Amino acid sequence: MKDRKNRSIDYLRISVIDRCNLRCVYCMPEEGIACLDKKELLTFEEITRVCTSAAKLGIKKIKLTGGEPLVRKDFVNLVRQIKAIEGIEEITLTTNGLLLEEKLDDLIEAGITAINVSLDTLEAEHFKNITKVDGFDKVLRAIRKAANSSLKSVKVNALVAKHLNEEQICHLARLAEHDRINVRFIELMPIGLGKQFERISKEEVLEILEAEFGTLIPYEKQLGNGPAKYWEIEGFKGKIGFISAVSDCFCDACNRVRLTAEGFLKLCLHSKAGVDLKALLRNGISDEDLMLTIAEAIHVKPDKHYFEEVVEAIDEQEDKMMAQIGG
User: Which residues of the sequence carry a binding annotation for S-adenosyl-L-methionine (predicted)?
Assistant: First the structure.
């Protein structure tokens, strides 16, 4: 599947729920958000039907996310259903890790091949301050268990921002020292509550790491399905990655679209462009027309985001929070 910029689109990120059991200060208000009613969520059958059509168009990789995907009832069964679709080669998961330890074995058996865990600090009290939940030990145990499992890849995603956790950067990097864990530093994007924080660039993070560990060596091979660029630290088993959507725009190589929990096929993280697939599914669209609709939408995928630019079509820029979009 190619879009109008001739980018190959083979990756679909699916938010299965907009609810989350954390209240991270850059993502969600402490009181929470007005979440979707259960009947407004795509059913597993609807998600599977979208995945089947997408696979026929060349989508090979599925990322399941949320909110927090593991809070959705019978989530493992959804993984099994997607695993059975012809053409789907890889199903991965992004989670905050709170429920991962107890569910990990079932997830691997169902077909999950790689897991990303979001973690912004290695101090329990700091974790509680950021997330408003006392769950650091559970998350760390889950990461260790995943790193020693049969998973092909385990990654820790750490969002970094000034006056939030810059003093944790080197501590987080050390997760990659003795285990096959790739630690990725995520540059804060100006979406939702993230607009209230000051981002730290990749160059600043590199400077902090090199002051502690010496020169980092660029890793030239591809790791995973996304835009992260990786470096190596001598003696470390894992890699250090950077996802820098603002300062190091990777839109020219974007290979993904998103399906929100309410069934909206979202073509770009920073744009409202897309199509309401749920309405079409519940109004009886045929499989052939569903596939055609997805193909036509992908073809007109926006060229790029406009995080740092003033554009005329300001009403077309995304104004929802990340939990509502899909992390």
Answer: 26, 67, 118, 189
